[in-house]
Design brief:
Elements: E1 3-11, E2 15-23, H1 26-33, E3 48-51, H2 63-72, E4 77-78, E5 85-86, H3 91-97, H4 100-108, E6 114-117, E7 120-123
Antiparallel strand pairs: 1-2, 1-3, 4-5, 6-7
Length: 131
């Protein structure tokens, strides 16, 4: 059975990047990410890799399930333009929109009711207590 690994790279353009992969060994996990998004410039020897036992059970999970688990384990993403941070507190909205990519697309849509302030992401029109 494949094991889960967190592979990371300090990218000059994007900062610290991490990807969850499933592989038989740490070396094979690192090879899986070389050349992929945010890891285009990574050399094998520049990659960090550690076991993510908490994610072993996610080997056949949906992308949404994996994203939620990552957030629950301290992962976060920053949007490229504004630097908005997507963390664990954003899980209900990510679930509502059906995944991280759809959530980001909705937020970046100028007609969207998604907004961001010092308290994080929220949908316009919701009561302050519902944020």
């Amino acid at each position: 059975m494949k094991k889960a690994y967190e592979v990371n790279f300090d990218n000059d353009d994007y900062g610290f990047c991490m990807k969850l992969v499933f592989a038989d060994t740490a070396g094979k996990a690192k090879y899986q990410v070389v050349g992929t998004d945010y890891f285009e410039d990574a050399e094998f020897t520049e990659l960090g890799c550690k076991r993510a036992k908490w994610a072993d059970e996610l080997v056949n999970a949906s992308q949404l399930e994996i994203e939620i688990a990552e957030l629950k384990h301290g992962w976060y993403w920053r949007l490229e333009d504004g630097g908005e941070s997507i963390g664990e507190d954003t899980i209900p909205l990510i679930e509502k929109y059906g995944g991280l990519d759809r959530f980001i697309a909705a937020f970046e849509d100028s007609n969207s009711n998604l907004h961001y302030d010092e308290d994080g992401f929220y949908e316009a029109g919701l009561l302050e207590a519902d944020k």
